[in-house]
Amino acid sequence: MQPSLDMPPSRADRLPLIGCDLALDFTNTSSGRGHHSHLEHLRSAEHVVAWARHAKALAPADGDWILAALKADEALAARLLKRALALREIIYAIGVEVSARRRAPAEAVDQLAHVHAACIAKARLTPHGDGFVWSWAPQEAPIEAVLGPIALSALTLLTQADLSRIKQCQGDHCGWLFLDTTKNKSRRWCEMEVCGNRAKQKRHQSKLRRTLAAG
């Protein structure tokens, strides 16, 4: 995917990881959905790998190998980007409904289960500490090595987390998803310093306008 000349550079390798969950952070690689300020950060397979490394879902050495493979195989790169965007939208569709306390779309849930199963089919259980973890060898399954940890994170979130803690930022034209880990579930913003401050400024300006109009 070639970015337009006037499109800002992708921030895939430095986006704030505010979701408190790998899968939710992945959905936040698209900013300002449904607004004229919308910005897509995953415009190429290389961006997907850059984000996965940034989120520590992919080891640096594995990322290097996959980037070399993508450079040598345009078809592989196209498949990775297509599958990554599809997975992101599946998780986002589920997250938005759950955050609004509505039933998750059955179709999206089924799609996520199928993606997860396809990734696990190419994974191995490897020793880690006192137990085992799922892992993927990039040389054997480069796409699954990138997407497998994300799909696993999403399934773990849905099956083990308190779903009432999944929330969507209330900031204007934001829509980022996050897991509210506060004790009293009071978090409202993706980042207080960004959307929280914008909302505060908007309230202040509205109050000032009302005061001026009344005077």
Topology (SSEs and partners):
Layout: H1 22-27, E1 30-31, E2 39-40, H2 45-54, H3 60-72, H4 74-99, H5 106-120, E3 124-128, E4 131-135, H6 142-160, E5 166-168, E6 177-179, H7 192-214
Antiparallel strand pairs: 1-2, 3-4, 5-6
Helix pairs in contact: 2-3, 3-4, 4-5, 4-6, 5-6
Overview in brief:
The chain is built from seven helices and six strands. The termini are far apart. Helix content is about 50%, strand content about 10%.
Describe the protein's architecture and organization:
The protein has 215 residues and is mostly helical. It has a single domain, classed as Jann2411-like fold. 52% of the residues lie in helices and 9% in strands. The chain contains seven helices and six strands. It has helices at 22-27, 45-54, 60-72, 74-99, 106-120, 142-160, 192-214, and strands spanning 30-31, 39-40, 124-128, 131-135, 166-168, 177-179. The strands form three sheets. It has a two-stranded antiparallel sheet. Strand 1 (30-31) and strand 2 form a beta hairpin. Helix 2 runs antiparallel to helix 3 and helix 4 packs across helix 5 (106-120). The radius of gyration is 19 Å and the shape is globular. The N and C termini lie far apart (55 Å). Residues 1-5 have low confidence and may be disordered.
